[in-house]
Amino acid sequence: MTTSRAPGHRERKKQQTREALSWAALRLAVERGLGDVLVEDIAAEAGVSPRTFNNYFSSKAEAIVWRQLDRLHRVTDLLRERPPAEPLWEAVTHAATTTFDHGESLPDQQWTTGVRLMLGESELQAELIRGGAAVEREVAAVIAERTGTDAGRDLYPLLAAAAIGAAIRSATEQWLRTDPPVPLPTLLRDALDALAAGLPAPE
Amino acid sequence: MTTSRAPGHRERKKQQTREALSWAALRLAVERGLGDVLVEDIAAEAGVSPRTFNNYFSSKAEAIVWRQLDRLHRVTDLLRERPPAEPLWEAVTHAATTTFDHGESLPDQQWTTGVRLMLGESELQAELIRGGAAVEREVAAVIAERTGTDAGRDLYPLLAAAAIGAAIRSATEQWLRTDPPVPLPTLLRDALDALAAGLPAPE
DNA sequence: CTTGAATTTGCGGGCCCCGCAATATTGCGG
DNA sequence: CCGCAATATTGCGGGGCCCGCAAATTCAAG
Fold it and tell me: CB-side exposure of A148: number of CA atoms within 13 Å?
């Protein structure tokens, strides 16, 4: 069987396994709650051995959170690609709203439930934010470059990146609890606008 | 021995044990790195059994982070006590700077090292922020009350609380890496001022 | 088909955290 | 001062996580 395909035949399979594990972990955790899911179960669901699970992820929480973090990394990438002349907040708003705009499809019920779970179980929150911190550092670097500040010395890039993270988290949390579903990009824009306006007391 | 003191004789001893455990955990982690500290060691250091450690803290990380979180809770308390008429950002700035103002004493070397460790080891970061999330909810509630918004429905209190958290974290991180030590309250004020001004791009 | 590299797997082991029941301590009323 | 009830501490046992290591399997390339 000379199924000679692209060079990344092996790579692709690894990526598939990773996806399968992450997805299985999320699905099972949604169904039963994180505490009642064993690594054994996740591995079985993905069709690999328990030992293999830990070759891909170093904890259950990391597996569950991986997809969401992947999204956040994409925000950074998008931000890098915005024209340097564009005002900072405009660029950020664009990058964030684009990333979290799932086309026309309303929030997939399964996905929504999953994220809701994440923000509920504090162990997952922690894992999510731990990864988010890494992303924030990237964002800070991009901001530093754009504004001509020094990410290593000035407070500004750090603070701005942290504030953006705060906006994304707040908007997401708000999104999860609005029953008549509001589009996430809209909430994101509101949050970022409020930030840029200095968080004036409402009313 | 009729050493009959205040009613909280028992309580005080528990609190002492808790302090001892948290401090021991922090000290050992600073010396050897978190990975090379066993619960057994911490318990020994504090003069209790290993099992008792877990009666006070449900993980090593929780023990180490406890003191810092205690500080954050105090910010909330202070904020509650500020006069309701005072503008929000003024009240927040006051509460935060007061809490982190260690009088004249320059940053205790030991303490500084400890905090630096925290922000280095990502497991501790995560634990710190997990606890911080609880505090943020409290802060959001206070803000909601002050501004007449609904913490359960409006985005504002959530966002403002998250932004304040971001400011505190950024200022702390900045504080840790400025070699000619700058007073933390000053950095905090800078960060909060920048937030209130809408994070204008510098220069 | 052979071969070398990459992946998966099983095993062993150290450690964490918790429930439970036995013990020890403490404050209180008699 | 004493015994009692409440509270805290301790030891034990056990399930589970995560990792290092080395054997086995898979895969691409010659």
Answer: 5
Q: Can you give the pTM of this predicted structure? A: 0.88
Protein CA at B19 to nucleotide C1' at D17, angstroms: 28
Q: Which residues from chain B sit within 8 angstroms of residue A190, using beta carbons?
A: 155
What whole-number distance in Å separates Cα of residue A89 and Cα of residue A95? 10
DSSP 8-state assignment for residue A33: -
Q: Specify the DSSP element, H or E, that contains A118.
A: helix A109-120
Residue in chain A nearest B87 by alpha carbon: A201
What digits encode the pLDDT tens for the residues B27-59? 999 999 999 999 999 999 999 999 999 999 999
CATH class of B61-196: mainly alpha
Q: What is the per-residue DSSP string for A83-110?
A: -TTS-HHHHHHHHHHHHT--TTPPPPHH
> Domain boundaries in chain B?
61-196
From the CA of A39, how many Å to the C1' of D16? 9
Mind listing the pLDDT tens digit for each residue in A44-82? 999 999 999 999 999 999 999 999 898 899 999 999 999
